[in-house]
Amino acid sequence: MTSMETDVASSSRVVIPGESLFPSAEDLRPGKGTYELHGHIYSSLLGYVYVREDTTDSRNIRVIEVRRNEERHQHVSPHIGAIVTAKVINIGPRYAKCQLLSVEDTILGGDYTALLRKEDIRSTERDKIEISECVLPGDILLARVISFGDTVTSFLISTAEEQLGVVMATGETGEKMMTKDWNTVQGVETGRVETRKIAKVPNLNLHSTTKAK
């Protein structure tokens, strides 16, 4: 058996964990940094998409990979007004502490943190917000930088806009969750339903767990 592998395409667009990359197909195979679930290939990393050609037994297979390419890191810093990708580290009654992963389409090389305050999660009914019903540790968010924090590497972020919020959820027990609708996520294995402040972006594959049944 012989195999020839060649990088045939790469993308400058940053993808986030849980983002749908391609529909499943006979000539596509998930590689490093990706996984296949319910008829789609998803990213399991924050990074860049690579399509690798793998010729095995005269079959042309395209292997989809996501790589954290250190050489492609640029020297940028978060700034007020920027859209950032963030991972929730822990939550309290007043705010969620997050690690900033990227600014727009650039992966951050430094250690930047942010606070998502209770009043900055939604634009309505702010007095009724419970942080644990909107975000949980392990969730990946799209957010906007609204202010500087207490240090040069800390910021305040907001998910109040409709297109901002959770894009990949991790359940209370650590289970991977899929978006069920704009307010809830559902466990891939258990079917457990939890509430979130979901980002209204078109590639979240709503009801994907339901369609797979």
UniProtKB/TrEMBL annotation:
Coiled coil: none annotated. Keywords: Cytoplasm, Exosome. This is S1 motif domain-containing protein. Its main location: nucleus. Transmembrane segments: none annotated. InterPro entries: Csl4, EXOSC1_C, Exosome_cplx_N_dom, NA-bd_OB-fold. One of its GO terms (cellular component) is nucleolus. One of its GO terms (molecular function) is RNA binding. Residues 14-50 form the Exosome complex component N-terminal domain. It comes from Diploscapter pachys. The lineage of its organism: Eukaryota, Metazoa, Ecdysozoa, Nematoda, Chromadorea. It is found in: Nucleus, Nucleolus. Residues 109-147 form the Exosome complex component CSL4 C-terminal domain. GO terms for biological process: RNA processing. It holds the Pfam family ECR1_N.
